[in-house]
Amino acid sequence: MPLLMTCIVGNYVKAFITLVLVHILPWILDDESPLFVTFIAVELLGFNAVVFGVFCGTVYESTVSALKLAIVLWLILLYFALQSPRINGRYWLVSICHANPIAAFKNIFEALPYFELRGTRVTISTLYAYTDVVTPGSSLIALAIDGICVIGITMIVDNVEWSYVRSRIAALIRRKELEQLKSQTERHSWHQDEEVREGKADIDAEDVAKVWETSGELSVYRFEIRAYPGEVSIILGHPGA
């Protein structure tokens, strides 16, 4: 648990560093924020995840202190995010930094049980060593996938016209509602789809009402009966049907 919390703390620290890079470099570049600057910052956020996470795991051993530091760093990150629109109005960058998956720390969780059994202290020198227990290759693959996914999300969010997407979704919802309303108005009872016979019915009565003789109340209405040779079809209606 302490190592997990310190990894999360490390992720927030890297998010803070990323925001600083993304918002300081545009000042140098004449108040402009090229997209490649964002890419570089996000890549730095992703590829130092493992090293920084293990470093936090070797420095902070108390869960409580790690939680306190995480809250402080989150508040600092939030402050810079709120102050950033005058430089860069991309709030999505903050969301990407917060939602960056901790799959980069897969190797840490994978190795913990083995190190606990051996009684070996988890440090950067012991965890990321090519031994028969730990395989850094899986973590490097996780980092590469993480970086690709973050770049893809960044490009999608930066290039998609979200107002157009919202208008299209609203139009599809309205169209669906109109179709449902139309289907409801065109809906009819099952006896309206009854097969039409070529021959004439022996008995054909429609819209016949039944009134109770004792109370005079309407008990049945729209009573319909059709009698064909060898077959009888009866359809009943009642109040509230």
TrEMBL record:
Keywords: Membrane, Transmembrane, Transmembrane helix. The keyword Transmembrane applies. It comes from the Eukaryota. The chain crosses the membrane at residues 12-29, 35-59, 66-82, 140-160. This is Uncharacterized protein. It comes from Cylicocyclus nassatus (Nematode worm).
